[in-house]
Amino acid sequence: MLKRVATTLMMTAKEACWAAQPDVLKRAYWARIRDIEFAALLRSTKLGYIQLERSSFGDLNKENAQKLVSAFTRFTALVGLILGGSEHRSIIEAFELFKQLMVTLSECETLRILTITNNPCTIGINSIRTVLQEGRLQHLNLTNNNMSPKDTKKLADYIGRCTALVTLGLGRNEIQDAAENVAAALQRCTNIKKLELTKCSIGNHTMTKAAGYLAELSSLTELNLSDNPIGDEAVASLVKSCSTLVILDLSSTWLSILPRDTCRMTNLKVLNLDNNKRLV
């Protein structure tokens, strides 16, 4: 049943890159989880990628929810896990054993990708810490989890220990001045290539200070700051500092004039300036 469910999926271009391990079942997706499908999951020990997004955990009783967490100890080939809520329901609220799951994942030596998105309540930063401090994660996406500046500053401490990070997504969280803390923490992540901070309420002053830290990230090639109230001063600092960028998204910001130093960004191939109404 699990194999039948998984093979009916339509994969996006990004998800298609997950097909790197031919001997494991790459990804499982459920619109609803029922006991018959759940039983098949428990028998599958070679899962490489699991997506539990917009799933109805109400179909699992408490006993099976516990079994599901315990099952992760047997997924010795697990590389990626996606836990996504919906607009009205948090998967973390539905999944009562979230903290225990994070502890289990911290012991998974193969885990490299963790995505926890679209949760209307604040995610448990302390719970995620157990995974981050192991330092094995390469891709972390925590988009749209109602994270506050205080939450993000706490998270930044843990991000600094995750030195293998290649991509980090914190978009659609009200992180505000904590963006500086994130940029400072990434100094220890020497392989970081992509940073996504869309719609994070980051202002001019914070971004200007964060630019000094971002300048030290020699491997950073993609930066998304769209839909933030940053203006000319902050953008000028970024352009002057981040010479390694290949992709820079400044759409829907408060930019009114393109900095002269933009022409010195010799590696830049994509510059998104859409919906900058002040730009002349």
Protein described:
With 280 residues, the protein is α/β, with parallel strands linked by helices. It has helices at residues 2-7, 13-16, 35-43, 62-71, 91-94, 98-106, 125-132, 149-159, 179-185, 204-214, 232-241; strands at residues 27-29, 49-53, 80-84, 113-117, 139-141, 167-169, 194-196, 222-224, 247-249, 270-272. It has a ten-stranded parallel beta sheet with strand order 1-2-3-4-5-6-7-8-9-10. Helix 4 (62-71) links the parallel strand 2 (49-53) and strand 3. Helix 9 packs parallel to helix 10. The protein is elongated and about 60 Å long. It starts with a helix and ends in an 8-residue tail after the last strand. 36% of the residues are buried.
How do the helices and strands line up, and which of them pair or pack?
Layout: H1 2-7, H2 13-16, E1 27-29, H3 35-43, E2 49-53, H4 62-71, E3 80-84, H5 91-94, H6 98-106, E4 113-117, H7 125-132, E5 139-141, H8 149-159, E6 167-169, H9 179-185, E7 194-196, H10 204-214, E8 222-224, H11 232-241, E9 247-249, E10 270-272
Helix pairs in contact: 3-4, 6-7, 7-8, 8-9, 9-10, 10-11
